[in-house]
Structures are given as structure tokens and as C-alpha cells.
Amino acid sequence: MQLTSEEREMLAGSKGPGCRLAMEVLVEMGESYQAPCLIPVESAHIVVSNHKSACDAGLEILEKFVSLGSKAAVPTTVDPGGIDLEWRGSYKIPGELLEKQRRIRDAFRALDFIPCWTCIPYLFGQSPRVGDHLGWTESSAVVYVNSILGANTNRETAGVDVAISITGRTPLHGLHLKKKRKGELLIDVRFPYPTREQMVILGYFAGLNTAAKIPVLNGIEKIARLEDCIGLGAASAAAGGVALYHIAGITPEAGDIKTAFGENPIPPPIVFGPRELKDTKGKMCTAQPGSLDAVMVGCPHYTIAEIRDLARLLAGQKIDRNVRFWIFTHKANILLAERAGYKSTIEEAGAEFVADTCMVVTYADLCGFSRIMTDSGKCAYYAPTEIASETAFGSIEECVEAAVRGEWAGVS
Ligand code: F3S
């Protein structure tokens, strides 16, 4: 791999032992991908942020770089932690796990990572532009910045993201190359004005059918909101490892189908119509109809607009006393919700806000929930294993209805 003179000096230790170690990691990784060189990145986003998924190995990596005096070379944000360390909430986390989360927080401070603790860093701390090269992990954020913002990042791996942050470099391969960003699979979407729920189910369907290819979604005339793309991307990334999709006529690199495919042949389309919608929704539900223990929304973290919608739905309602209703979001959104009056409306109905963590990476499995419901495709994918509970998926309206009734009626 060709290195610049500055990079050769970094590899020799000119910027300290931490930067040297990080360069060694990236050079080895780059050579395994046959990358011709490293490229500078504008920013990094880190997933070694909670002990549940980072484990002791992730903590060891962070503390190793801290011990070598490393600092982020580019703005670096972090994914949700395992728990909100300032929260006095009602589920108990074992002391040993709390201590490990504190060590992760301390390492982040020492490394100069921005502790936003969110999977929507593009709304809190980072503003990638079209054409920027980034070194990001967090599958839902990667697919969003690639597809909707037109930035370039591979779905980096935990640990390597830290090396990217410290050097401000990443190997040139995969989605950093224009020719690798072209469509490979065509989905004919029969919902020109999809609802939020249809977008999430479409994402899940795309994930199940792409086998890591880049899907081009054709037939959508208008997307109602940014949040619909966040939900679609997260579901596609969870169900099928999608890191980039195009929506013909809408997303930055897909002015039309031909542009979206570039030199690639345009394959016969896979149809996504009412039948596929219903089938996919059924696949997203592992639960049988019946009583619910919890409803969890905010995967990816809810935006303030989603909180506003939820406040309207919950106004004057009472959630069944046997159902926990958790809303995961960024802490700043809770402050905004408080100022706007949404927080009191939501809490009066019996729901709780949780910040800095999420249903998948916190220790919800320790709560003993046997059946939960969510409006998130990504949560529906991970909850059966990560929360160890049967899972029902539905629109936010269906989630609220089920939470108030105390039971889920089944796939509608
Ligand atoms: Fe975010 Fe956690 Fe979902 S990190 S995308 S809320 S699994």
C-alpha cells in the first residue's frame, strides 16, 4: 500500500505510540482489502460504546489507546452506551457492568471523543456533506449518511473505528470508491407515497432480499419525512447488512435508475407490493397475540418530531399498568420535549424517556420481559436475541393502542 511521507512518519511513531499502533492496524487492514492507499476522513463514529456489545476486548482496546496517550485526530462521536449513567430509572444494572460503562466513558474523555451517546450523530454533533469521506461504524448511521446525505463510509468494525479516529485515515476501498456505490438490485416499490410503517417494512424486505448488494428502490414519488429514511435504512442494515441504498429520483446519487446503476446491468425487478408488505410484516413478528410486558420505541433514537407525534397520540391516554413504555432518544431531545410540553404529556400517560442508551445495547434482557412490541425494524430484528423476548412489530399508532389495552391483537 502506498503511504504518503506523513503517513510513513506516523507509522514510524512521529505522532506517538498510539498513532503508530493505529496506523499498524489500518495498514494491515488495508492490505487485506488490497487498498492502494489510505485516505483522510472528515470524522469518525465509534461503536465501542457499551460493554454489552464491546465486551472486555473493546474496553481493553480503548484503555490501551488511552495508556499510549492517544487523541482523536478528527471529530469523533459515539454510539449509545449500555446505560444512562445519570439516570435514576427503575431497572437495576449490576454494579460490575455499571463500573465498566464508567470506564468506557472515562476512556472516551481521555481520547477526546464527543460523548453524544447516540446512533443519530448526524443530528447531534456531525454534519457530513455530499462527497465527504468518513470512518463510521453503527449500521443505521452508516446507511443513512451514505444513502441520504451522499457521504462515503464503509461499515467499519469496532476497534478499527478507534484507529481511524486517532489517525484521521481509512483504507481506500469499498464504498469510498464511486464505482462500488452503484446499484446492483432493483426493487419495484408499489407504494408511491409510503407511510412510515411501509418504509420500515420496505427496509426490512430490502435487507432480506439484497444479500449485501446495493438496492435501488424505484417507484417512490415522495418521502414524507427524514425519519422515514432513518427507519428504512436501519431495518435494511439489520436484516441484510445494507450499507447504501438508492431511491430513484430522490437520493443524491440516483437522479434516475440509469444513474443509480451506472455501468452495472439493470436486473429484473423484485416487486414490493401489498402482498410482500403483509408477508414481511408477519416475518418481523415472532410473538403470538396476547399480553405485553413492554413497548420500546426509538431505534434509531427518536427525533424531536417523532416525540411530538407520540405526545399527540398519548395525550389523555393511560398506558396499561402492566406495560412499560420506553422511548429511547438523545438527552437534548428530552430537554426539548420538556420545553415543548411533550414530556409531561407523555409521562402523564405512563411512558418513560431513556437517554444515552437503547433497548438493544442496554440490559433489557435482565428485566425478564417475555413479550415486547416496537415500531422499529431494527429492534424487531434484534430483540428476540438481545432482549430474549418474543417481539411484535407495528406502526407507532398500533404500539400506542396495544400499550393502552395491555395486549397485542396480532399482525394487522
Ligand atoms: Fe440505535 Fe440501538 Fe437501534 S444503537 S439503531 S437504538 S439498536
Describe the structure.
With 412 residues, this protein is of the alpha/beta class. Helices cover 41% and strands 15% of the residues. It has 15 helices and 16 strands. It has a 5-stranded parallel beta sheet with strand order 13-12-11-14-15, with helices on both faces. β14, α14 (377-386) and β15 form a beta-alpha-beta unit. α2 (17-32) packs across α6 (160-167) and α3 (51-67) crosses α4 (95-111). It is globular and about 65 Å long. The mean pLDDT is 96. Residues 79-80, 119, 140, 234, 299-301, 328, 358, 360-361, 378 line the site of FE3-S4 cluster (F3S).
Helices and strands in order, then pairings?
Blueprint (H helix, E strand, L loop, with lengths): L4 H8 L4 H16 L5 E3 L3 E3 L4 H17 L8 E3 L16 H17 L23 E2 L2 H9 L12 H8 L1 E3 L13 E5 L6 H15 L4 E4 L7 H15 L5 E2 L9 H5 L8 E3 L1 H10 L6 E2 L2 E9 L1 H11 L9 E6 L1 H10 L1 H7 L2 E5 L15 E4 L2 H10 L3 E4 L2 H10 L1 E2 L4
Parallel strand pairs: 2-3, 2-4, 6-7, 6-9, 7-8, 11-12, 11-14, 12-13, 14-15
Antiparallel strand pairs: 1-5, 10-16
Helix pairs in contact: 1-2, 2-6, 3-4, 5-8, 7-8, 7-10, 8-14, 11-13
Bound molecules: FE3-S4 cluster.
